[in-house]
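To illustrate the input format used throughout this study, we show a single complete record. The first block contains the structure-token representation of the backbone; no residue identities are included at this stage. The design step must infer an amino acid for every position from geometry alone.
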């Protein structure tokens, strides 16, 4: 459910232009020439409300399996790394540089957030709406913008002193799961 390494968003952008832009448009607004005749029309990746409900894993699944009842076909010819690169690239289209800058500042000062999103797996499975349980809507939007643009930030956090805090947190979760018979 997560990439094995930091996705190559540059390669994802190249793939997007050849494989996705004909339907979803050059900038992800859902206005590509091939998509104009589709029913339903292709989604706009730039739609912030819709992006807030979507995880990167959901985008990866759509690229991998397609979406039934739509023109979205699966792309089995792409490697796992290429599909993750596309998911991360497409997942950042609803966010701008200002959002990412705000998210970076939040990331640096918010240790609980760094613990919550401490791996590529956590970033891939978490949507902006999931983050709203512990952050304000604006903070959730900014944090997701930053992590979708700079997923390597989790590696930096893991190599800092936060890793011991993360280990303690995971041990506590493991103990609670064991106590609950899970």
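Output of the design step:
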């Amino acid at each position: 459910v997560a990439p094995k390494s930091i996705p190559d968003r540059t390669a994802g952008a190249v793939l997007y232009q050849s494989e996705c832009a004909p339907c979803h448009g050059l900038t992800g607004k859902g206005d590509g020439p091939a998509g104009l005749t589709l029913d339903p029309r292709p989604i706009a990746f730039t739609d912030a409300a819709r992006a807030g409900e979507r995880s990167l894993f959901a985008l990866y699944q759509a690229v991998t399996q397609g979406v039934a009842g739509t023109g979205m076909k699966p792309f089995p010819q792409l490697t796992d790394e290429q599909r993750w690169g596309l998911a991360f690239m497409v997942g950042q289209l609803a966010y701008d540089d200002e959002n990412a800058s705000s998210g970076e500042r939040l990331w640096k000062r918010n240790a609980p957030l760094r613990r919550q999103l401490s791996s590529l797996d956590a970033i891939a499975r978490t949507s902006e709406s999931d983050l709203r349980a512990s952050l304000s809507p604006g903070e959730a939007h900014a944090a997701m913008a930053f992590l979708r643009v700079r997923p390597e930030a989790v590696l930096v956090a893991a190599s800092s002193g936060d890793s011991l805090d993360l280990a303690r947190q995971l041990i506590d979760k493991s103990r609670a799961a064991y106590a609950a018979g899970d």
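Structural context for interpreting the output: The chain has eleven helices and no strands. The mean pLDDT is 91.
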